[in-house]
Amino acid sequence: MGKRKELNLIRRAFKERWAIPPKVREELVKRLREVIDNETDSRAVVAAAKAILEADRLNMEQEKRDGDIPDRVDVTSGGKPLDRDSLTADDLAAAMRLVGVARGRVQADGGQE
Fold first, then answer.
1. SS3 sequence, 25-84?
2. Please, what is the average pLDDT of the chain?
3. Cys-Cys with 13: which of 7, 18, 41, 66 at CB 3.0–4.6 Å?
């Protein structure tokens, strides 16, 4: 099985909430981190990142169902609910830089590739 197919299968398992034992889930996340940290194929890196983000999204949805948690939180504000009206130009620029890094168009230090 190709690397991207493997990564997409992992993402599907998370998305469809397959019964994955906690130890195996831990190993899957470790595998995804290895791909993100070491892989040269940008599509494989993006597939791994999508799988981790999918798992995180599902975990947050479950936590929200289990308790009183807001729809979105701003991780830079200590977990307070995100107030879109208070976003600054710097916040938007940082978000666009992250998108550029994820798409391989911008280096993490801000330089163009």
1. HHHHHHHHHHHHHHCCCHHHHHHHHHHHHHHHHHHHHHHHHHCCCCCCECHHHCCCECCH
2. 75
3. 18
3-class DSSP assignment, residue 107: coil
Burial of 51 by CB count in 10 Å (0-12 exposed, 13-18 middle, 19+ buried)? buried
Ranges of each domain in the chain:
1-69, 70-113
Q: Which residues pair with 112 in a beta bridge?
A: 106
Q: What does the alpha-carbon distance between residue 10 and residue 101 come to, in Å, rounded to a whole number?
A: 23
At which residue do the structure tokens 């979105």 appear?
A: 72
Q: What is the distance between the alpha carbons of residues 60 and 82, in angstroms, rounded to a whole number?
A: 15
